[in-house]
């Protein structure tokens, strides 16, 4: 099977044979790279010549026989009459074999051979082929030159194949054979894609040829030996029937690996070693001097070997052609040899000041193969490589580098520093795996090997994983070492205050103002510490909001500022700054996602879910909480799991999905969580679930426990967890309105700042605990506060109760209008498996009493899709496209597309032409939908 690329070469050989038949001796030199098809071409021609009646004499040069005098010549004439092989023995020629020239005795023997050849050629043409002639012994080469000069007028055709590479022992011979005019030169190039396609088509069929030709060419570089090996691998896969050949991928199997090694071994050890060096260095910009040092070779020998590999199609651009070639080379080297080469490569690259990542990759490869990585330079390189990747927000390989650095370090403080960085990196990516480093770091702290910054990081992780006793010890040690130290970093004070704020039991015994000396006045750190203290002391709500916004606006999202961001977000929630918190949280969440920081994304996402729940967007809150919760296992979440779990329980309870809420409450949580603020969120929502399912005593127990903990921790902030509100609602359910009213009055008598949302909920409870004649004005006030706060769910409940009280007071018309507004909110935010996106805060306040006599121009609203209707309602209310985009969580482009369709369907030209009562019509239409209509369809009412 001759490739299409070689058909022209066969034709040239046949022409040379035809010329030879006319009595003109010919010499054909076929040149090419390793395994480029020279042998196959020569054999194909030899078969043709024999079929035409020629006498064939053939031999093959070999590394192993280069020192055997006249070894190749004896191959040619062995067992062929009338040649006498005894005349070619070393004994008969004496010292002629060692002489650089042909003496009289040697010439006599060769003359006899020449006469025999000429006599034979008179009766039949003679074809002499020598494959890999560059490996022939020198006496044979001199003899062939002697014969070639004397056979030029006979019917003898000489065909030599050679490698197109320099060879000092062969170059003199070659300079002689290229002179005669009768010499024909054939330079074999690698197979083209068309040639490879022809081979694949003949072996595997046209369909597979079309699928595999390009990849086969990339793998083989046009080397026929490798191409045929790949064909064999495809056949083997077809025989195994493991993977269908029609899947379009090429199988690289045992035959390809063997062919690669065969190509490398045919030239000798040097090309193989250079290929191994290339495989070790891979993409580190290997040069001839670097390879020479790695392999203990001279650069000129490296360059010669690279030329061999280039012509064989194994190397291109100074690199191994394909990963499969690299794998084949490395698999043929023992693990110990590879490890030694990787270690040496790392040292050489370090000496050349190469990229730390490249050196680290070599050290990691040596470690995987059992090599021993030692030395301060190695540890420093691994750590620097990790830090460089972290600065670029790349996390691939970082944990492996740091783990190896920690295992390779022999100094206590150095190892502790690396372990701390490793813990931080693993916690940011896989928090469930990072806990394994805590014990070693605690021991390092006890031994004094941990820096102050690393101690602060350790304290945060002790809280996260619920090691509260150890956390208390660390905070006490920090306070003792940093008290009164003006040089201590600003982050110190915030970290201590933040940890003590989240976990008050761990901060017991610390001086309240311990952190003040370490914080420079006016800095972001100072504002954050001051913000937390203002929350504790019940300071002015507006000042806390201003401080939180300054903190969020003054520090980008980074590892060293995440505490600032989270504390400021929660501070806004603690004082009912939900609307501002939502806007800032969205930006932070986007930033966390773009930085590929899963823990940041999870924490900020959980807080965002909490914000959405407090604004009544139960569907959005449930989705966000579920997403955040699902990023890690329960062990990975640690004590912080209280937030996403609490939000999921809250949304399920408010939506009436009690089985779902119950299942969530049965998930295991760490006991340490109940010693943190995360536990307060969980307890409060569990109490509301018990209350909703009429387990009032269990509910009261949870609300009471919340109150006890918050008072004990001096953190009785009702906007954090309104335990009095839950207790008051429970007392109402138990028939104790006086106790419920007392709890509300106790709350209003306190000094802690209360925002409109919390105040509105308390006023609603107060109305339920008051005489009937006082309820309507109280509920009106509750509706006003809740509408201003943006909590649509609580607002809907207050509206329903106000409607009932108005009905009881004889105000039937207003009761219907208020009830309709409550129904509308229920449809947007009410119970069910899914909810539409929220309307902006204040929308209900803009809508007046329902007008059931709508103009005829509004009946076309029924042609709008649900998405178009939502956009149209908000546009009619005056919101900009960007505001609509933010409210509905769609792109500005999508808003514009929806509005274009709305204008066309309603026959208007701009948003100012949209009917101002479009939002009212949407509610009327929902109420008028036919029960028989498919779910989600809407149709206009008739007049």
TrEMBL record:
User: Which chain positions lie within coiled-coil regions?
Assistant: none
Give the keywords, sorted.
ATP-binding, Nucleotide-binding
Which intervals hold domain HTH luxR-type?
857-922
Extract the SMART domains matched here: HTH_LUXR (SM00421)
Return the InterPro entries for the record. AAA_16 (IPR041664), P-loop_NTPase (IPR027417), Sig_transdc_resp-reg_C-effctor (IPR016032), Tscrpt_reg_LuxR_C (IPR000792), WH-like_DNA-bd_sf (IPR036388)
- PANTHER family xref list: TESTICULAR SOLUBLE ADENYLYL CYCLASE, TRANSCRIPTIONAL ACTIVATOR DOMAIN
What protein is this chain from? AAA family ATPase
């Amino acid at each position: 099977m001759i490739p299409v690329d070689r058909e022209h070469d066969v034709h040239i050989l046949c022409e040379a044979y035809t010329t030879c038949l006319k009595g003109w001796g010919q010499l054909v030199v076929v040149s090419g790279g390793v395994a480029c098809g020279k042998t196959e071409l020569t054999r194909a021609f030899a078969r043709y010549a024999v079929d035409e009646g020629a006498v064939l004499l053939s031999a093959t040069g070999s590394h192993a026989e280069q020192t055997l005098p006249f070894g190749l010549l004896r191959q040619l004439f062995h067992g062929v009459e009338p040649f006498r092989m005894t005349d070619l023995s070393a004994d008969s020629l004496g010292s002629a074999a060692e002489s650089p020239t042909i003496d009289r005795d040697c010439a006599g023997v060769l003359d006899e051979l020449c006469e025999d050849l000429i006599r034979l050629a008179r009766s039949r043409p003679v074809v002499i082929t020598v494959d890999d002639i560059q490996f022939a012994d020198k006496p044979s080469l001199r003899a062939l030159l002697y014969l070639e000069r004397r056979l030029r007028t006979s019917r003898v055709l000489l065909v030599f194949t050679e490698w197109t590479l320099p060879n000092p022992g062969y170059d003199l011979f070659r300079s002689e054979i290229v002179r005669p005019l009768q010499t024909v030169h054939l330079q074999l190039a690698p197979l083209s894609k068309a040639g490879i396609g022809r081979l694949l088509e003949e072996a595997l069929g046209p369909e597979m040829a079309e699928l595999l030709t390009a990849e086969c060419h990339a793998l083989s570089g046009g080397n026929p030996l490798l191409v045929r090996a790949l064909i064999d691998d495809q056949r083997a896969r077809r025989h195994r029937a493991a993977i269908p050949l029609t899947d379009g991928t090429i199988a690289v199997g045992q035959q390809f690996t063997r062919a690669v090694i065969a190509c490398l071994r045919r030239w000798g050890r040097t090309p193989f070693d250079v290929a191994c060096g290339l495989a070790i260095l891979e993409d580190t910009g290997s040069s001839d001097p670097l390879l020479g040092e790695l392999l203990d070779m001279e650069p000129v020998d490296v360059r010669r070997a690279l030329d061999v590999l280039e012509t064989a199609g194994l190397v291109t651009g100074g690199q191994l052609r394909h990963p499969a070639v690299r794998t084949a080379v490395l698999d043929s080297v023992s693990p110990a040899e590879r490890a030694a080469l990787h270690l040496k490569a790392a040292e050489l690259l370090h000496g050349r000041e190469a990229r730390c990542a490249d050196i680290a990759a070599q050290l990691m490869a040596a470690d995987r193969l059992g090599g021993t990585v030692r030395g301060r330079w190695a540890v420093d390189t691994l750590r620097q490589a990790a830090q460089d990747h972290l600065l670029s927000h790349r996390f691939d390989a970082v944990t492996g580098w740091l783990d190896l650095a920690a295992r390779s370090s022999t100094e206590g403080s150095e190892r502790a520093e690396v372990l701390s960085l490793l813990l931080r990196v693993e916690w940011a990516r896989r928090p469930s795996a990072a806990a394994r480093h805590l014990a070693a770091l605690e021991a390092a702290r006890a031994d004094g090997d941990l820096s102050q910054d690393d101690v602060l990081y350790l304290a945060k992780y002790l809280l996260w994983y619920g090691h509260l006793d150890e956390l208390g010890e660390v905070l006490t040690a920090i306070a003792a070492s940093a008290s009164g130290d003006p040089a201590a970093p600003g982050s110190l004070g915030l970290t201590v205050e933040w940890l003590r704020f989240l976990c008050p039991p761990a901060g017991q015994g610390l001086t309240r103002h311990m952190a003040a000396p370490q914080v420079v006045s006016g800095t972001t750190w100072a504002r954050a510490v001051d913000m937390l203290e203002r929350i504790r002391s019940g300071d002015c709500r507006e000042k806390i909001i201003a401080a939180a916004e300054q903190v969020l606006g003054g520090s980008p999202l980074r590892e060293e500022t995440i505490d600032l961001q989270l504390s400021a977000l929660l501070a806004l929630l603690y004082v009912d700054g939900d609307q501002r918190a939502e806007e800032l949280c969205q930006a932070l969440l986007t930033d966390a996602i773009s930085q590929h920081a899963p823990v940041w994304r999870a924490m900020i996402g959980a807080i965002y879910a909490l914000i959405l729940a407090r604004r009544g967007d139960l569907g959005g809150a449930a989705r966000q909480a579920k997403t955040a919760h699902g990023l890690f296992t329960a062990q990975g979440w640690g004590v912080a799991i209280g937030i996403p779990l609490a939000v999921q329980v809250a949304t399920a309870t408010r939506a009436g999905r009690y089985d779902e809420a119950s299942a969530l409450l049965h998930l295991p949580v760490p006991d340490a969580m109940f010693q943190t603020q995360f536990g307060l969120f969980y307890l409060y929502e569990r109490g509301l679930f018990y209350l909703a399912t009429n387990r009032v005593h269990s509910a009261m127990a949870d609300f009471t426990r919340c109150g006890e903990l918050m008072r004990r921790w001096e953190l009785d902030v009702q906007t954090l967890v309104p335990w009095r509100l839950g207790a008051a609602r429970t007392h109402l359910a138990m028939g104790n309105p006086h106790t419920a009213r007392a709890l509300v009055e106790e709350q209003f008598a306190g000094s802690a700042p209360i925002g409109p949302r919390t105040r509105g909920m308390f006023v609603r409870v107060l109305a339920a605990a008051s005489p009937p004649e006082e309820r309507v004005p109280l509920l009106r006030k509750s509706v006003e506060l809740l509408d201003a706060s943006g909590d649509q769910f609580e607002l809907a409940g207050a509206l329903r109760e106000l409607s009932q009280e108005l009905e009881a007071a004889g105000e039937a018309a207003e009761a219907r209008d208020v009830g309709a507004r409550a129904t509308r909110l229920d449809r947007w935010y009410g119970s069910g498996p899914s909810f539409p996106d929220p309307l902006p805060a204040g929308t209900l306040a803009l809508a007046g009493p329902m007008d059931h006599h709508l103009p005829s121009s509004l009946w076309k609203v029924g042609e709008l899709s649900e998405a178009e209707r939502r956009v149209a309602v908000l546009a009619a209310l005056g919101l900009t496209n960007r505001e609509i985009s933010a409210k509905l969580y769609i792109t500005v482009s999508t808003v514009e597309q929806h509005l274009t369709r709305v204008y066309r369907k309603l026959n208007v030209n701009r948003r100012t032409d949209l009917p101002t009562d479009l939002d009212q019509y949407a509610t009327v239409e929902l109420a008028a939908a036919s029960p028989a209509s498919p779910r989600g369809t809407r149709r206009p009412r008739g007049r």
